[in-house]
Amino acid sequence: MTADAPVPRPWGWALPHGGRAANVEAGTRYAGTTSQLCGLFPFAVASGADVRGVPIGRHLYTAETVGLDPAHWLRTGLVSNTGVWVQGQPGIGKSSITKRLILGLVGFGLRAVVPGDVKGEYTPLIAALGGTVWRIGRGRHTLNPLDPGPYQPAIAAAVGAERTRLAETLRARRLALLDALLTVVAGRDTDPTGRRLLGSALDLVTHTTDAPLIPEVLHVLTRGGDLLHRIAAATGPDDYARTTRTLVNTLGLLCDGPLRGLFDQPSTVRPDADSPAVSLDISALDGDTDDIVAAAMLCSWAWAAALTDTTTRNVVQVQDELWRALRAAPGLVEKADRITRLGRHHGVVSLQITHSLDDLDALATDADRAKARGLASRTAILVLGGMPERELDRLRGIVSLTDSERALVASWAAPPTWHTGHRHPGRGKYLIKSGQRIGLPVALTLSPAEIALHDTDTAFHAGGPR
Question: Which residues, 6 or more positions from 7, have their beta carbon under 8 angstroms from its beta carbon?
Fold first, then answer.
């Protein structure tokens, strides 16, 4: 047919023997289950995802782009909160999908906050976003747990009841963090008398300075005074010294023990209201004991919570290596939750990343383990990477998985053969679950600009194993 030849109408040529149909009857609609009709209709599995959001990959069955934006999902009624739980075995790309979400959500106007980056793996991304990275460690930046930080300008600008609320919130967060640090050092909770003594000593110090230091609180607590003597019910200086000896020595370990130089000096970390992303990099402490890392993570979380509590800008916050802090001492799950308790009411998208629910077994008490499971079960969105069947069995109490979903996630756990040179079957593949809905299996492909920012295997490149 040439370009200038007549084009037939939709129902054929209007000529004799031209194949024209005067009437086209409507088709008959039949209904059936996907088990019966999947051969006739091969598109029986729809993605069911709104494309709006951060593009996290293509649906494995339909190739449709899948978008994930917890804030948008909350606004449209798909979820009840903006918590995201990311779980999968090491090396399958948990940090990749987390960084993709950070990158996209910052582009949507949210501020990224990464408190306590244990391995420093988010530092290149935060720097590429034009954000601020504070490297915490001996001889580096210091973080004073009692520093008002972001609260100071907020309190100075507030008046009336709002000023009182912020001041009381700051005091409560200081005491909660100080109590948590003492729990890490001592390995047990502070008794009620010790908490009252700490609170009164802190109040006495804050009457003279806006940025108290732990050594100053220790000095006031050691010196005593009428108020502290009454709280301790001491009959004299010697009785007071005996009563407070354990508390004084525990607080002293924050200044003289392995933590010396980290949290007993004025803070050099300063909040930047205009920065699109902030990270507290504690990778310099990665080789230290769990107690030191836990203390650094708790301080970083508290600082980030203060930053979020005093800003009107929505935030995406990442908590990676979560259990490394919580397993340091009994009761830290509740204390950490008290320090960082923020959510949809504060405009926070929370990303919590872990390898396995086996991490829960490392927590000290049954109460801690139950509360930690609650952290996972309360998140509205789960991102599941490759993991073995045994781990999927443990997830049953948190999320409902169909047999096909279980088989799919388990197939990503390991290559089927010992032949090398093939891409790991689970690299960049995830199952997005929320409520009782059918999950969204997606495959993430990194852009060239992202590859260098997402590489967590740099120690094995070029020079080989060390």
Answer: none
Q: Is this structure's pTM higher than 0.85? A: no
- Strands 440-443 and 54-59 turn out to be antiparallel
Residue 245, classified by CB atoms within 10 Å of its CB into exposed (0-12), middle (13-18) or buried (19+), is exposed
Count the Cβ atoms, other than its own, within 10 Å of residue 343.
Answer: 14
Taking the CB of residue 321, how many other CB atoms lie within 10 A of it?
18
Residue 245 contacts residue 225 (beta carbons within 8 Å)? no
Q: Where are the domains of the chain?
A: 54-123+280-294+309-454, 153-256
Tokens in use for 395? 């997830």
Rounded to an integer, what distance in angstroms lies between the CA atom of residue 363 and that of residue 79?
29
Least confident of 303-307, 368-372, 461-465: 461-465
Question: Quick check: 120 and 455 in contact, CB under 8 A?
Answer: no
Residue 387 CA to residue 38 CA, distance in Å, equals 29
Mind giving me the DSSP string for 213-272? -HHHHHHHHHH--HHHHHHHT-SSHHHHHHHHHHHHHHHHHHHHSTTTTTSSS-------
CATH number of 54-123+280-294+309-454: 3.40.50.300
At 103-158, the pLDDT tens digits run 999 999 999 999 889 889 999 999 999 999 999 988 888 889 898 888 888 888 88
Per the DSSP assignment, residues forming a β-bridge with 135 are: 281
How far does the chain reach from its first CA to its final CA, in angstroms? Answer: 70
Q: Which residue has the higher pLDDT, 257 or 457?
A: 257
pLDDT of 341 over the 60 cut: no
pLDDT category at 421 given cuts 50, 70, 90 is low
Say if residue 15 is exposed, middle or buried (CB neighbours under 10 Å; 0-12, 13-18, 19+): exposed
User: Between residues 374 and 340, which one has the greater pLDDT?
Assistant: 374
User: What average pLDDT score do residues 208-212 get?
Assistant: 90
Q: Is 45 helix (H, G, I), strand (E, B) or coil?
A: coil
What span, in angstroms and rounded, lies between the C-alpha atoms of 155 and 166?
A: 6
The answer to whether the Cα torsion of 256, 258, 260, 263 is positive or negative is negative
Choose among 362, 282, 363: nearest CA to 117: 282
Neighbours of 230 (CB within 10 A): 10
DSSP state of 119: S
Distance CA 213, CA 201 (A): 11
- Please answer whether residues 392 and 401 qualify as being in contact, where contact means their C-beta atoms are separated by less than 8 angstroms: yes
